[in-house]
From TrEMBL:
Belongs to the FMO family. It is an enzyme of class 1 (oxidoreductase). InterPro entries: FAD/NAD-bd_sf (IPR036188), Flavin_mOase (IPR000960), Flavin_mOase-like (IPR020946), FMO-like (IPR050346). This is Trimethylamine monooxygenase. Its EC number is 1.14.13.148. It comes from Methyloligella halotolerans. The keyword Oxidoreductase applies. Pfam families: FMO-like. Keywords: FAD, Flavoprotein, NADP, Oxidoreductase. GO terms for molecular function: flavin adenine dinucleotide binding; N,N-dimethylaniline monooxygenase activity; NADP binding; trimethylamine monooxygenase activity.
Amino acid sequence: MTRKSVGIIGGGASGIGVARQLKQAGIDFEIIEATSKLGGNWQPAGPASKMYESAHLISSKKNTQFTDHPMPQDYPAYPRHSLFFRYLTELAEANDLQEHTRFDTRVREMTPDRGGWHLVFDDGSTADYDVVVLCNGLLGRPITPKIAEAVTCESIHAVEYKSATTFAGKRVLVVGGGNSGCDIAVDATKTADAVFHSTRRGYHYMPKFIDGRPTQEWLMDESSKFKDAASYWEHVETTFKMAGFRGEDFGLPAPDHPIEACHPIMNSQILFHIGHGDIDPKPDIEEIERDTVTFADGTKERVDLIVWATGYRVDISFLDRKIYDWDSKLPETFLRMVPAEFDNLLFVGYLNSPSGIGNLVNTMARFVASYVIGRQQGSEAFRVVRQIAQAHERLDLGQGRFMQTDRHRHEVDLWKFLRSVNFVTAKLASERHATQDNRLAEPTRLRA
């Protein structure tokens, strides 16, 4: 059996980005994709899809695209999901990635073998790789709270939601204050008889446009005008309040956290519909008895359908936790990619950041290519990376800035993360070039 250098598990945006960089670096690889297409969550249908009819990007085109392969000029500032899926497909085709992919192949088991990894697939076939890069993402397994077991009315998780026709003529409760929960609550106003939206706390809401520009782009441009973070965020909050995006002004509870401590809720319509009475905001659920929901404020509502927009958990169940306890150790990996226990295993895309995917993946993918080459050559920089990973040193990637919740355990500060990864990648790459030029690279401590 031929053993390839790298196996990439997952053909979504992260897997596509890693594959592009490996190909450019001349490293042989294979993508293992459980479905019939590349594109991951952005597929419009199928077992991997998380898409609903109204879904659009919440990061702007400029901040989401791979800068070395821009989105078409005629794409709007926030492309709908089908356009972004088309873009990912074209990105893959431009690099002939389909030719390097095992489609409709789900990994059943993954075990260390002869310095690499032995993979067993659902159809019984197998493959071996020197290095495995896991790219199947954070949205592996839907989370439904235990209280859902008491429901006798119709009940679905957000992953099952596809269009507003689901809500026609019904009294609908959407549970969850994230971006999907807000999107679905807005959708429900189109066809439902009544819409209730239950959230556990107060949130900071951001419009998708401010001052005629996509908000993320405005935020980045404004940041350069301030000498300290406190003044900048005070300016941002004041601007959003003037634009009508302060939840307290619509009767919602004040957030219990600063605006920079939470993954942004980017939605221009949720407060509009609350202000018009189309959405009735509710606090956390206290009790469910058949089709009647009691909320923490004592109010009760009869509902016909509950949508649980309550998030997801990572699912790497094909890798036995006795081999690597991914559930607990993922947030502790060096650069959120490099585990201490294995030098032939990498994780890409298991993080959140208030940014688009393109440049983030490009940055991680360049690191992966340099890391794999460093491992192949046994370079000094690679050995130092391994020493740091094995020392379990928690590099400051801005984790302390964010709320300590399950939703934010994978959050990183964008700029700190990019600086750190780029620094280490540059060390790996510079030593590689020096070695190729037959010059001895000086040993160096990698500290961002």
